[in-house]
Amino acid sequence: MTSHPYQDLTPAQLDTLGPEVRRIDVRELDEFTGPLGHLPGAELVPLGTLEEAAASWPREQPLLLICRSGGRSAKAAQALARGGFQHLYNLVGGMLAVREQHAPQG
User: What transmembrane ranges does the database entry give (predicted)?
Assistant: First the structure.
């Protein structure tokens, strides 16, 4: 068994996720709308409100947790795992890594 209850996903693996995976961005609003932007289809659920918001979500639905660098999203994934969610993904490196991957090379 892995050491944590979620699967780490790199920005390069985002395309492998199906449409059934909900994208949950746990940053604050000013970050979500800020220079780093957010993933298409991502829902803003700041970390401080996550457990309350997730109380009504189906436990079997796969969730991708996103933040700026991967730290808050890892905490979010752990909290959701404790809440009974079974299919959790953490975006390693967060939006910083996504932007870096899509930055023009040269």
Answer: none
Q: What is the CATH number of the domain that holds 50?
A: 3.40.250.10
Overall pTM > 0.85: yes
Would you state the pLDDT for residue 79?
97
Domains held by the chain: number = 1
24 in a structural domain: yes
- What is the residue range of 16's domain? 7-102
Query: Which residues are CB-contacts of 80 (< 8 A; sequence separation ≥ 6)?
Result: 50, 51, 54, 63, 65, 88
DSSP state of 13: G
